[in-house]
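#help-structures

NK: newbie question. if I give both the sequence and a SMILES, will the prediction place the ligand too? trying with LD2E54VC
OV: yes, paste both and it writes out the complex. here, I ran yours:
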Amino acid sequence: MTQERLWQVLDPPWGDLHALLALLCSSAAAVGLLRWLGRRQVQQKMDEARRSRHLALERMEKAARRLKQENPGTQSSQILSLTMVELAEKLKEGSLSPESVLYSYMDKALEVNQEVNCVTDFIHGCEDQLQELKKQKEKGLLYGIPISIKDHINCKGHISSGGMVKFLGQVKEVDSIIVQVLKHQGGIPFVKTNIPQTMINYDCSNLIFGQTLNPLNPQKSPGGSSGGEGALIAGGGSILGMGSDVGGSIRLPSSFCGLCGLKPTGNRISKQGVVGALMGMQSVTGVLGPMARDVDSLALCMKALLCQEMFQLDPTVPPIPFNDQQLGPSSCRVLRRDGYFQPSPSMIRAVQLTRQLLQDAGHTLAPFAPPKIDYMVDELFTRGIFSDGAAHLVDCFKGDMVDPNLKSQYNTYRLPALLKRILAIILKPIYPRIARDLGALCGVG
Ligand SMILES: CCCCCCCC/C=C\CCCCCCCC(=O)NCC(=O)O
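OV: that's the protein plus ligand as structure tokens.
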């Protein structure tokens, strides 16, 4: 009776329940088919990107072989053992040729990549650049230095994937400003390196290019998000790399891989020409910066980057050159613990040793305790980077698959704000920190 009345009200054109069921089933099948097609499209794009990488690495192998044949008698192991400052000097005085240095690093990078999966592309224009260098009237500060570039920093003729399917196939038509300046200073960008999907992560894995391992211990992560850089430089396949950092993406992989990394002050280096998942946030500034084996290399790189070329190409960068003076004895603050994360015994020991070394080198040291650490982390940092409630970040996953390493993070980001707030209230007595994270993930407004 009720069913009959329902049919009367609905006045179904199909006539009976079977037709309704058939419609429901076929709708479900259509949805399933569309999803399957969508996933297949994503899979095809990822396969295509992997094929391109494979071809690029084959091309790199051939180029290295050719350069080797053209420069017989080069002592690659000797070149690879030089510090960046020593290498720069030898290149400048002409006792080493940019060709021999480039192919030594290309060879080594290919070897390291086999072990830890850190290279995503070969910047084939580096061969033309060897010729360009010969035309430059003055030898720049990075003359002939091979440089690795994090995936998301645009290089002409290459994609910047950000570890996301949505950026695949978008070949960049111009170099980012940082790459233009590196080239202006004689540097030779030669490979691009792996990152985690979206780069908002401290590991280094994405579904397109896979997981990067730590060359010091392949059971471990190199850290992220500039993890491909960390792994390649620590493995000896690059002497200088360009990374980026919002909340640790240069500092963490540098630390995990036993390297030096610098997160410069916001807007010190132009960010024009990079892709990312967190665009436009103003309160927490993302920056590009160098990673290398020692501090002198970072200083040389910063000196090279902070030049007229950079200030002219991007007038929003304050035209303040590198200040050599500050490399002398200085007054430093030592952060023994930040009051938020528990340091491991090895970290405590490392800080103590560094403190001693700095003191012995004549620096004046004083303790430093960051004020209001909980407020800084939760309210200024987390709420700052997710000021839109992580909406833009969640949007980046549309038409993509989520890397298993990011699943729990992603699922948390996409909870409705009301649910995040309710969960925060429930979890507050047991897990106050997670509760504060959830509150901060609601964003502002
Ligand atoms: C049960 C799961 C709970 C998940 C809670 C998630 C809370 C997330 C809070 C903060 C995460 C912040 C991650 C920031 C990573 C930043 C890395 C970075 O610097 N990337 C920028 C870059 O590469 O340029």
